[in-house]
C-alpha cells in the first residue's frame, strides 16, 4: 500500500509544486516596490533597443557585403573582355 500511495502522491506533489511556483512568482512580481518594477521595465526596453540596433547593424553589413560582392563580380567579369 505505501509504495502505491507514494506513487500517487509524487505526481500530485510535482503538479502542486509547479502551480505553487507560478503563483509564487506572480506574488513576488506584484509585491515588488515600484522602483524595482520601473527599473526592470527600463532594463527590458534597453535590451530590446540594443537587439534592434544589432539587427539593423547586421542588415546593413549584409547589404554592404552583397554590394561589394556584386561590384567585385562585375569587375571580374569585365577583366576577360579587355584586350591588351
TrEMBL record:
Residues 45-73 have a biased composition (Basic and acidic residues). One of its GO terms (biological process) is negative regulation of barbed-end actin filament capping. Residues 1-26, 45-84 are annotated as: Disordered. This is KIAA1211 isoform 8. It comes from Pongo abelii (Sumatran orangutan).
